[in-house]
Structure to design on (587 residues):
């Protein structure tokens, strides 16, 4: 039940319950922790949607994703980097989408880190397109979970913000900015 | 390659580091032929700018020869170019409005976090100026990697010396933007605090924009002499009371526009300045801001305040009341170098702007640490040091 009296997005509420309501409204979330981030990208909506819709493109700007294998038109297998050279993996299914506007996905049963998310693309006139990512995840419990959680404790909200910035850089400039001056330094940055 | 690296307060060294490589399609590698030490490099030297790391290569005023290009670079090997100190992509919303120093994409994503936390929005990328602005290696080196080389660097026409065009990289456009931000109207009197390179270029620019009088304020006699050469009247704040002098010189009105080209390390023994120094040393406040306070105090009602000077943190005792009650306007910001370069290159070619007068010293890259110390210790005579990696080490 929403109690908000303003127009601010639910993901920015000071109340945890409000934030949870906000995310439940747009994702298949079972998760407690959620991230909502928007970025404006100076490119047409359809172009951004098309790039994102091919999930195999995502590792080009998501630094903690090692690779994504496409299994079918709506299913994919995600391999994420974890500490000590390990990986965590899950299958993801696109649950709903509207061409050019939004994509919603959720992890399948048995995921190392159950998660779900939604990416939305809205026209922003002369400024291009507003892209909003909303991601919910269940931090795992137990000893094994702790190791996995460490991956997500790389501040998931910060990670999402950085991923969106890199997406913007790639779409607007054709490359992801780096301050490295040798290939070796650049490789080390991504670890 | 050899490069001037930062290791801490008053500790810069010339080290051997890896050569830069092409990493992105729009990159180019430049072999440096001339690179200057900027007054704002002294803020780094003095340890005023946060997020510096040992080994960072300094230098954001540089030019040289294109030696390597990425597949999307529009530069050609062998071309001589001057490189803007602001790293701008040319394709984001801000670049589209020629607000190059507000570029969204020049700063790597991870480094944007610091600016987002400190300032609300992340800073653009700059060469050799802390990790707040990207952590990019600077140009006080034999070579440098230049991102977005299809947008930033300007090709130098044959027949022009390095010394004539080097300052297109920062201080000439910065002085020009400072005058532009003062919205000068014909007949105006403009007061400029600080006769460093930016202040001196602001003096020249203000006259070109129609100022009737320019009053330059400093305490270094040699620098005031240079301002005089360009037609400015001068106030030496160690000899005269600045506010009183300005009021008398303007018939009790105050300057129509004021330009603070001093910034966060204002010199002078003023009460508020000393308090600021104590606070800075205790990390209670970070910037010493006498010049901007005085500029606002002296500015006429309804006047304009332009602030090219670099500030990094928080201040107190900002004269907000005077600012509001007098109805002032403030414009400031890092310089959108790319926007000004073509017109200013023409102004140099046409002889409207002189830049070489500024250079007081030329030395080899290996002598750079000595240059920093000289510049730091003697700002009266040392107006600008240009490092030329080709020059041999000076005899001791």
């Amino acid at each position: 039940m929403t109690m908000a009296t303003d127009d601010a997005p639910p993901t920015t509420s000071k109340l945890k319950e409000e934030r949870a309501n906000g995310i439940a409204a747009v994702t298949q979330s079972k998760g407690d922790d959620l991230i909502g981030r928007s970025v404006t990208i100076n490119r047409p909506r359809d172009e951004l949607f098309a790039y994102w819709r091919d999930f195999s493109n995502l590792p080009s700007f998501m630094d903690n994703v090692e690779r994504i294998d496409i299994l079918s038109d709506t299913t994919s297998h995600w391999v994420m980097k974890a500490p000590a050279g390990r990986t965590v993996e899950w299958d993801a299914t696109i649950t709903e989408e509207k061409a050019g506007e939004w994509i919603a996905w959720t992890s399948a049963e048995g995921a190392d880190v159950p998660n779900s998310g939604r990416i939305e693309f809205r026209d922003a006139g002369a400024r291009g397109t507003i892209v909003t990512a909303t991601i919910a995840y269940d931090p795992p419990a137990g000893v094994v979970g702790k190791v996995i959680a460490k991956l997500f404790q790389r501040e998931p909200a910060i990670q999402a913000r950085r991923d969106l910035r890199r997406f913007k850089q790639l779409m607007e400039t054709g490359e992801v900015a780096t301050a490295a001056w040798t290939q070796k330094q650049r490789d080390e940055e991504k670890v | 390659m050899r490069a001037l690296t930062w290791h801490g307060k008053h500790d810069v060294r010339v080290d051997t580091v890896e050569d830069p490589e092409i990493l992105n399609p729009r990159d180019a590698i430049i072999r440096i032929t001339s690179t200057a030490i900027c007054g704002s490099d002294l803020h780094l030297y003095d340890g005023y700018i946060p997020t510096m790391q040992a080994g960072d290569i300094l230098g954001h005023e540089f030019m040289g020869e294109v030696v390597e290009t990425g597949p999307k670079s529009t530069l050609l090997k062998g071309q001589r170019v001057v490189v803007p100190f602001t790293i701008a992509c040319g394709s984001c919303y801000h670049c589209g409005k020629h607000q190059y120093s507000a570029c969204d994409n020049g700063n790597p994503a991870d480094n944007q976090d610091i600016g987002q936390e400190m300032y609300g929005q992340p800073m653009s990328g700059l060469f050799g100026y802390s990790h707040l602005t990207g952590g990019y290696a600077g140009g006080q080196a034999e070579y440098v990697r230049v991102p977005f080389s299809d947008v930033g660097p300007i090709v130098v026409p044959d027949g022009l010396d390095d010394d004539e065009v080097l300052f297109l990289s920062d201080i000439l456009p910065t002085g020009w933007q400072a005058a532009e931000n003062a919205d000068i109207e014909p007949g105006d009197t403009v007061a400029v605090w600080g006769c460093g390179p930016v202040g001196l270029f602001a003096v020249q620019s203000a006259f070109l924009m129609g100022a009737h009088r320019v009053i330059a304020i400093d305490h270094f006699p040699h620098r005031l002499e240079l301002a005089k050469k360009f037609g400015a009247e001068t106030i030496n704040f160690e000899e005269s009371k600045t506010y009183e002098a300005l009021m008398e010189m303007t018939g009790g009105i105050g300057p129509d526009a004021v330009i603070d080209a001093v910034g966060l390390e204002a010199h002078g023994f003023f009460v508020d300045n000393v308090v600021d120094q104590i606070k800075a040393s205790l990390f209670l406040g970070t910037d010493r801001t006498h010049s901007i306070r005085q500029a606002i105090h002296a500015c006429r009602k309804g006047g304009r305040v332009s602030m090219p000077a670099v500030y990094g943190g928080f201040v107190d005792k900002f004269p907000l009341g005077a600012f509001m009650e007098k109805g002032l306007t403030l414009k400031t910001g890092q310089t959108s170098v790319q926007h000004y370069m073509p017109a200013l290159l023409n102004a140099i070619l046409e002889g409207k702007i002189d830049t070489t007068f500024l250079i007081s010293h030329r030395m080899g890259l290996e002598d750079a640490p000595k240059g920093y110390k000289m510049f730091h210790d003697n700002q009266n005579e040392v107006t600008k040091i240009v490092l030329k990696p080709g020059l041999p080490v000076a005899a001791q």
Summary: Residues 266-271 of chain B have pLDDT under 50 and may be disordered. The longest strand of chain B covers residues 28-37. The interface with chain A takes residues 18-21, 23-26, 72, 89-93, 96, 104-113, 116, 125, 134-137, 144-145, 147-148 of chain B (CB under 8 Å). The two ends of chain B are 24 Å apart (CA to CA).
